[in-house]
Specification:
The complex is a heterodimer of chains A (785) and B (173). Chain A contains 25 helices and 33 strands. With 785 residues, chain A is of the alpha/beta class. In chain A, the strands form 9 sheets. In chain A, strands 14-13-24-23-22-15-16 form a 7-stranded mixed sheet. A 5-stranded mixed sheet of chain A has the order 2-1-5-3-4, with helices on one face. A 5-stranded parallel sheet of chain A has the order 19-18-17-20-21, with helices on both faces. Chain A is globular and about 85 Å long. Chain B is built from 7 helices and 5 strands, in the order βααααβααβββα. Chain B has a 4-stranded mixed sheet with strand order 3-2-4-5, covered by helices on one side. The radius of gyration of chain B is 19 Å and the shape is elongated. The chains are: A alpha/beta (785), B alpha+beta (173).
């Protein structure tokens, strides 16, 4: 390989590098730091700040290291008089218009300009004239602006263009009057907009929720993992006196690179929401009262032990840690219950015994960017897991073809080579047709190709593209996994994989979905694939009231497929224990005991990402009030119920116990295998409700994150229908619709969206409106309200 | 009822679309943004208030397939584009070297007093817009000069300026 390398000399030191690499990268790798503002390794080269000037022998003038490719024999001086003079000159110009009031700037203490000015700036400015001032525009609840401080490096502009795929910030005006901004007053819409905060080298773009909350040197930085989308983005939590202040990304090339989604960055605010439960509470005849942990745990034990184990059902949040999941199922199985589930939004469990070890992505997160062709099936990838969407966007940028079979045209940040929007039954037919065109021989129970009513040319184009691609994948998203025909879709993809050699993968629907499968938070499987007597799955658990319910960080009105069904089941139970970080009036309407447990960042634990990577972390902030780490609460419950094997002294012991059980597991796979009795798919004569989760309302912490909740995305609860469908129902003049499922109704704003398939009504799940209704998929009635 | 499906480009009148299509035809298909200068000029020309509203810039962005902010960048960069409504008739007095030596400053002073506005402003009746600062219009031999609605007027004197402005006023009334 060394033939491919050239040798250059940096500050007298010989360095080998690939020809064409930019000098600044080579120097960085060799441990020589060159000052810079506009250069960023993940963005294109702009060379507009001129800070990285270095002297290159035989070049007549200093050259910008970020835009100078290395050549054999190049001799570079990064701190010669010529280089330093150029750097100091640039610094003086940059400081002409930049305010010199670091003590009142939020970035002070962690500012690249401040740092570099310490090295290359003069103590006193020679510039006595007036400085430019830029009026700020409100660009939304997440990013604070102080554009007078901007040095026009354009990192944020390039981020929008190149990474977010949504150019929202730009440089308007010219010369002295050039300003970076949105020009018009508008909220940034990118689901990754928070990254401009990290990219901004000065205090022009800062995090609005944590602005002026603490100084960089007062905060402690500790690493942890994001719990919302199953990608497992690495991040650092910054705390001040044990209080959460903010979250920043940690670099991990295999997962999130240097980026973080807004949901992962700003959800921490939910942890300290005003309805945080800080003391155990117990319901007595005269109402709710606070009590000691001892009283609460004894109450739980006394009541659950009294109930026959088979009459207890447990709903475990799929954002819980692996340790919580493992201990929860161990405790409940110890009580004699196998009705344990964390697939709270799912409704189709036909093929659960045939599922692989866990719903695997099918490749590494970073492998997605190498795909030549990908089909998203029932996935709002951009909002569901922005990091995966970013990888797919990279594949698209490299010439890959991304396609989609979705319920509506979700907004993406790349083009789609082909797109089909289809009703739930038509989605199965469309995929069956695609399978047939790819050459798969479908069993009769999956062969719905002939009932496809959509545009066959689109499916044909998808098939041709997949056949022509060397490296292609079909990706099954959150919508598909939660739909009533999820098993059919999984079955079809398995057939395509088997017959056509095209891989498929599951896109995660929650932070620790994978962990739940490994830890055995399932009614039909124990930890590490161990066999158990089948318990009830979540839909059966809630079909009628069980005697006892055990809820772990679950708000059924938002987290379950059928909110009203879930609430009425819980209200009919004789004993409900809710271990929760927050207490709501709804919870108090059905629960008997509320146990305050740790929220994000307050407990040590492990999350397993969609690629099967176990990522453990420590507690990084103090739990609120008397809230306790979940695994400790479960340990005590196990001991109180006199179950053996609950004498853990740390969460790592819990993890290692499970890890020990996981040593001889089969290789990861995605196909469902074995005999599956698929339900017959019938016509859809009635209006069908279809839903995917509003991702800024996906779990209890996110729903309470104040700034995120002020974004337009979080507020989206409107029902979408196409105009022909509305006209058919005589509702084309209505602005508000009354939706009815059984006896449940809700009044919701309507938006015309021509991409919603005929016969369907799209309503986001996990919103206040959807909480008043029934199941996320199925028949629904509408009228004007 | 909220409509998520109407296109922003629908705002463009047919003749403007025709002109934009003409510009688009002059560039390769993957360089559509090259037509933005011509498109904005056409929009401004057809606008009753001779300016580029945000809605119309968004329409151009949608029609050409650029991001909206990229259109704002172009429109705010070039001084020939007006981002606020301006008067019906546009007067641009050259103040470059030749005209300056031949007394363009007095012309500007006179116009500002006569119209009771500053450079860059429009009269309250919306009749006349005094363009901010005009660079050399390549008519030095006729200095001092000004351009009124694309027509050159050379060898200006105060009287001549009065006459031109009064005529504009007359045609407006």
């Amino acid at each position: 390989m060394s033939d491919d390398l050239v040798t250059i000399e940096i500050d007298g030191k010989p360095v080998e590098a690939k020809p064409g690499t930019m000098l600044i990268e080579v120097a960085e790798a060799a441990g020589v730091t060159i000052p810079r503002f506009c250069y960023h390794k993940k963005l294109s080269v702009a060379a507009n700040c001129r800070m990285c000037m270095v002297e290159v022998e035989k070049a007549p003038k200093p050259l910008p290291a970020c835009a100078t490719p290395v050549n054999d024999g190049m001799k570079v001086h990064t701190s010669s008089k010529t280089a330093v003079d150029a750097q100091k000159g640039t610094m003086e110009f940059l400081l002409i218009n930049h305010p010199l009031d670091c003590p009142i700037c939020d970035q002070g203490g962690e500012c690249e300009l401040q740092d570099v000015a310490m090295g290359y700036g003069e103590g006193v400015s020679r510039y006595n004239e007036g400085k430019r001032v830029v009026m700020d525009k409100n660009i939304g609840p997440l990013v604070a602006t102080e554009m007078t401080r901007c040095i026009h490096c354009t990192r944020c502009v390039r981020f929008g263009e190149e990474i977010a795929g949504m150019r929202e910030l730009g440089a308007t005006g010219r010369g002295e009057n050039m300003e970076i901004g949105t020009y018009i007053e508008k909220s940034m819409a990118s689901e990754m907009s928070g990254n401009v905060i990290d990219l901004c080298p000065v205090g022009a773009l800062t995090a609005k929720p944590s602005r002026f909350a603490a100084r960089a040197w007062e905060m402690i930085e500790q690493p942890t993992v994001a719990p919302h989308d199953g990608v497992g983005s690495n991040l650092s939590v910054h705390t001040s006196n044990g209080e959460l202040v903010r979250v920043v990304p940690n670099e991990n090339e295999a997962i999130n690179e240097t980026w973080l989604s807004d949901r992962d960055r700003f959800s921490y605010e939910g942890v300290n929401a005003s309805d945080r439960l800080t003391k155990p509470m117990i319901k007595r005849e005269n109402g709710w009262r606070e009590c000691s942990w001892e009283t609460a745990l004894n109450e739980v034990t006394d009541n659950l032990v009294k109930i026959n184990g088979a009459d207890i059902s447990a709903l475990i949040s799929p954002t819980s840690t692996l340790e919580e999941m493992y201990l929860a199922q161990k405790y409940l199985r110890g009580l004699g219950s196998n009705s344990i589930d964390s697939r709270l939004r799912q409704v189709d469990f036909t093929d659960q015994d045939s599922m692989p070890l866990f719903p695997w992505l099918g490749c590494g997160v970073d492998d997605l960017e190498k795909l030549d062709a990908a089909v998203l099936i029932g996935s709002d990838a951009r909002m569901d897991h922005p990091i995966i969407a970013h990888r797919l966007r990279k594949a698209w940028l490299a010439g890959g073809k991304v396609m989609a079979i979705n319920p509506i045209a979700y907004k993406l940040n790349h083009d789609l080579h082909a797109m089909l929007t289809a009703s739930p039954a038509q989605m199965v037919s469309g995929l069956a047709l695609l399978a047939t065109k790819l050459g798969a021989k479908l069993p009769g129970s999956l062969d719905y190709a002939s009932s496809f009513k959509g545009d066959e040319a689109v499916v044909e184009s998808m098939a041709e593209t997949l056949k022509a691609a060397e490296n292609s994948m079909l990706l099954l998203g959150q919508y598909a996994m939660n739909s009533q025909y999820a098993s059919h879709l999984r079955g079809l993809l398995s057939q395509i994989e088997a017959h056509c050699n095209i891989k498929f993968g599951y896109l995660p629907d929650s932070g620790n979905t994978t962990g739940a499968w490994l830890a055995g938070c399932l009614p039909h499987r124990g930890p590490a694939l161990s066999a158990v007597t089948d318990g009830k799955h979540v839909v059966d658990m809630l079909a009628n009231s069980d005697k006892g319910y055990f809820l772990w960080n679950v708000e059924p009105e938002f987290d379950c497929a059928d909110p009203q069904r879930a609430l009425s089941a819980l209200q009919g139970a004789s004993f409900v224990v809710a271990a929760t970080s927050f207490a709501t009036d709804t919870m108090k309407s059905y629960a008997n005991v509320l146990l305050p447990i740790s929220a994000f960042s307050e407990s040590s634990g492990t999350l397993v990402n969609t690629n099967g990577a176990w990522q453990s972390f420590n507690a990084v902030s103090n739990a609120q009030g008397e809230a306790r780490p979940g695994w400790k609460v479960l340990r005590v419950l196990g001991n109180l119920a006199q179950q053996s094997g609950f004498d853990y002294t740390s969460s790592t012991q819990v993890r290692d116990e499970l890890k020990g059980m996981c040593t001889e597991l089969p290789a990861f796979s995605t196909a469902v295998t074995g005999e599956i009795k698929y339900a017959l798919i019938e016509d859809e004569p009635q209006l069908q409700r279809v839903s995917s989760t509003n991702n800024y309302r996906s779990d209890a912490v996110v729903r309470r994150a104040a700034a995120l909740q002020r974004t337009p995305e979080a507020e989206d609860s409107a029902v979408r229908m196409n105009s022909a469908e509305l006209a058919k129902l005589g509702l084309n003049e209505a602005s508000q619709l009354e939706l009815r499922q059984g006896m449940h109704t809700a009044s919701v704003e309507v938006v015309i969206d021509e991409t919603v398939p005929a016969g369907c009504l799209y309503l986001p799940a996990a919103t206040e409106a959807s909480a008043q209704l029934g199941t996320a998929f199925g028949n629904i009635e509408v009228k004007a309200s | 009822m909220a409509e998520s499906t109407t296109r922003k480009a629908d705002l463009l009148p047919a003749d403007v679309r025709g002109e934009i299509d003409h510009w688009l035809g002059r560039f390769p298909d993957d360089q559509r943004q090259s037509a933005v200068l011509g498109a904005l000029r056409s929009v401004q020309h057809h606008d009753p208030q001779h300016y580029l509203s945000t809605e119309m810039m968004d329409a151009v962005a949608d029609y050409i397939g650029m991001s909206e902010i990229a259109v704002y960048e172009v429109a705010s960069f070039y001084s020939m584009y007006n981002l606020e409504p301006v008067g019906k008739h546009e007067i641009s007095v050259c103040t470059n070297i030749s005209c300056m030596l031949r007394g363009s400053d007095e012309i500007v002073d006179h116009l500002e007093k006569k119209l009771d506005i500053k450079l860059g402003e429009s009269t309250t009746d919306g009749a006349i817009f005094l363009k901010k600062e005009e660079e050399c219009l390549a008519a030095c031999c006729g200095a001092p000069m000004m351009q009124v609605d694309h027509v050159y007027h050379e060898h200006l004197t105060i009287e001549k300026v009065d006459q031109i402005v009064d005529q504009l006023r007359g045609s407006h009334d």
